[in-house]
Design brief:
CATH class: Mainly Alpha
CATH architecture: Orthogonal Bundle
Helix content: 25-40%
CATH topology: Arc Repressor Mutant, subunit A
Oligomer: single chain
CATH superfamily: Winged helix-like DNA-binding domain superfamily/Winged helix DNA-binding domain
Strand content: 15-25%
Strand order of the largest sheet: 1-2-3-4
């Protein structure tokens, strides 16, 4: 049985393709630079298609720093 965070080696969404094994994101076949944290978030989200992922669910260490960034952005 697949774990809830497992992901197919390549996932396509819109113009993008995420190569989970290589840790790379492409848009129309052109590689896009991604920092490690956004890559982990994409892997988390693509590993749970059709499911809502909350901040505290499964990977709080990944999403908690994002919450701080969003909170700081909203204060400005």
């Amino acid at each position: 049985m697949k774990s809830p965070l497992s992901v197919s080696p390549k996932v396509r969404f819109g113009a993008f393709e995420l190569d989970a094994l290589a840790g790379k994101l492409f848009k129309y076949g052109i590689p896009i630079k991604l920092q490690p944290q956004p890559l982990r978030v994409l892997l988390l989200l693509t590993g749970r298609p059709g499911h809502v992922v909350t901040r505290d669910e499964k990977a709080p260490d990944i999403l908690r720093p994002c919450r701080a960034l969003v909170t700081d952005s909203l204060r400005q």
